[in-house]
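[09:14] KT: can someone run the structure on this one? pasting the chain below
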Amino acid sequence: MPLVSNRYCLRAMMIRTKLRNLDYGTISDLRMITIGPIYIARPLACIVSYYAKQCWDQSFHGVLFTQEGMGALQMAQSLLMASFESGAGPAFVARHGQTAADYQATFDEWTGKQYQPVCVSVYRDGTTARYASIFHQKNGVAFVARHGLDGSQYQSQVTAWTKEGYRPRSLSAATVDGKTVFACVYEKNGSAEWAARHGLSAADYQSVFNDMVGKGFRPRAVCPYTVDGKDHYIAWWEKSPGNAWVARHGLSESAFRQTHESLAAQGYDLVSGGSCLVGSSDRYAGIWEKRSASSIGHHGMTSGAYQANFEAALAQKLRPSFVSGSWGAVPVDVNLRFRIQRQQQSQWCWAACSVSVRRYYQPASTLTQCQLVNTRRGRSDCCTSGSSMACNLPDNTADALDGLGHLGTLTGSSVDYSVLRDQSAAGRPTFLRIQWSGGGRHAILATGVEDGEFVIVCDPGSSSAVDPSLGTTSVVDYDTLRTAYNGSGTWIATGTTNS
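[09:31] RB: done, C-alpha cells below
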C-alpha cells in the first residue's frame, strides 16, 4: 500500500489551484480493510481504503430538484418470502421467477434426475404467473404435482389424490389477470389425519382455523392470495404431535416483522407463510415452530434480494426450507445485483461509479473509466497515462452521469430511506456524495435495501477480495450512512439515475 508523501500533498494543492471549487481533503486513515461482493446480514459499516479517502467528488453547485421533487416510486411488484435452515438434508435445487413453461421444463429435467418437488409457489408478476420452487433428491416417497390449475380442477385433483392416500406437501394460489390459479405437491407420506381448505376469506379462514385447532389439529402451511381485492387463504392442518407453534394472518408488514423478530428471539422458526396485496397494503400470514434447527427468515424480497440472500445462506451452509411469492406493494429487501468497478486511479471514484452505472443500464457497453476521463478532459492519453497529473483528477459525478444520459434528479442533501428503497425497487441505483470530516469527497452508489433500514452500498474505493477489478459491496445502517459512513463520512448529496 502506498504511503502519503509531501510530494503528493503538494501535488494536491497544485490541483486545487487549477480546478474551481474543488475541496481539498487530508488523508487521516491509511488502514485498509476490504470485503468481497458478498451479501452479509448486518454489518454496520466497512472501513474505506486509502484510495477511497483520497478520491474527491467535486461539488455540484445549484440543486436541480428538491427532495420532494424526486417523487415517490412505490409500485406493485413480485416479492418473495423464504426461510433458510441449518442441518443436513438431501441434495436440493431451487428456482424462482420462472414462467409456467420454464417451471415445467425444470420439473421435467430434475424429476428425470431423480429429484422431486417439495415446495412450489405460484405468484403474480403483472399479468404473468410465475413460479418459485425447491426440489429435493428423491427419497422413495410417491408424489404428484400440478400447477396452473383453476379452482375446480384443483378440487377435482385433490379429491382423487385423497382417495389414493396422498396428503399435502406444498400448497399455493395466486390471482393472475383476473383468474385464480393453484400449484401444489401431494405425497404418500404419513398416516396422521389431515384437512386442507382453499378459497377462504379472512373471516372464514379464522373460523376454520379455530375449528381445526379445537379438534386437535395443528397448522402445517398457509398461503394468502388476493381475490376481488381481498385476502383469501389456502392452508392445511394435521392431527399430530409436534413442536410448539404460533400462527398469525392478516398482518401488516410492520406487524409481521415485529411478530417474526419476537418469535425468533423465543426460538421459533418461520416454517410457512406468504403475503398478498389488499388495496395498496400488503397482508402477511405465517406459521412458526419451536425447533432445534436454527434458521434465517426473509420477507418482502425482490428477485435480486432473494438471490443474494440465497447465496448468502449457502455460504453459511444453510438450506432453503420454503419459498413463497406474491404481488406486493412495499419491498423490504431489494438488491439490484449491481457490479461496481474498482476505481483505477486514486481520483477516479466518479469515473468508476459512472461507468458502472452505464454498464448496469447497458450491459453491452464497452465504455471504460479512462475513456470517460478522456472525454471529460478533452484528452486522448488517459488510457496510457492515467496516473498523470493531467488525467488523475477529481470530477463532478453528477455531471459525468448527466453526460452519459443517466442522471435523473439531484438534490444537495441526503434523502429519506424510503427514497432509496423506492429507487432500488424501481431498478435504479442511486449516487451518493460523501464528505469526509478531514476534507475531501467520495462517490458511492446505493444499490438496494434490507429490512431494518439498512442500505446496500457499492464503493469503488477498495478492491473486492474475490475480484480485484471490482469494488466492494457492503450493508450499512441508514443512520450510519448519513452521518458516519466509514467513521468520518457525511452524506451530502444524492443523485437518482435512469436508463
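[09:33] KT: thanks! The domain at 336-497 is CATH 3.90.70.10 (Cathepsin B; Chain A).
[09:34] RB: yep, looked fine to me
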